[in-house]
Design a protein that fits this description.
Heterooctamer of four alpha and four beta subunits. By secondary structure, the chain is mostly beta strands. The protein has one domain: Barwin-like endoglucanases (Beta Barrel), CATH 2.40.40.20. The chain contains two helices and nine strands. The chain is globular.
Amino acid sequence: MRQFLRAKIHRATVTEANLEYIGSVTIDSELMERVDIAPYERVLIVDNTNGSRLETYAIPGPAGSGVVCINGAAAHLVREGDQVILMAFGYGDQPEAPKQILVDDENRFVREIETHERGVIGAASAAR
């Protein structure tokens, strides 16, 4: 068995960093549903702003709120306003196309990312 990417929320903006909350990342439940991230599922967070990487678990926030709140000790690594990628992985013998979405600056769903677009999104923003 190998571990493969199965879900990704790309370019989310951190709406809050709450050092006092006990662990996790709160994510708008509509975004979690779109990529099939379950409550309390382990997620990897990559901070595009400062390069930090960390693992925690997802908890659902209010639907349609756009919330992406980094909680607990992770708030030392990721700040409000940072741009992040939220990823979940699964095990299997062969890779399957992951569910990937792109969100805007207010964490509203923009569109699904097709597997063939790898690298294109980053290149497009670098050209801006």
